[in-house]
Task: structure prediction
Amino acid sequence: MTRFEAMLVGLVVASGVMLVQAKHEARLRYLALEMQTRRGERLDVEWRQLQLERATLVTQDRVQRLAQEKLGLASPRPEQIVPWER
Result:
C-alpha cells in the first residue's frame, strides 16, 4: 500500500469516526430537547392548576365564610354604619 492510499484510508476512517460522533451528539441533544419539552409541558399544566386553585381560594363567598367562621367577623348592621365625610 502506498503512502497516498494509507493516507486516504486514514482520512476515511477519521471521517467515519467523526460522523458517528456527530450523530451521537445529535441524538443526545435531541433527547435533552425532548426532556425539556416534556418538563415545559408539565410546568404549564401545573401553572394552569395553580391558577385554578388560586381563583377558587379567593372567591368572595369563601373569603366571607372564612372571615365569619375563623375570625368571628360579621357584616355591620345598618345602625353601625357611619358615613364618612371629608
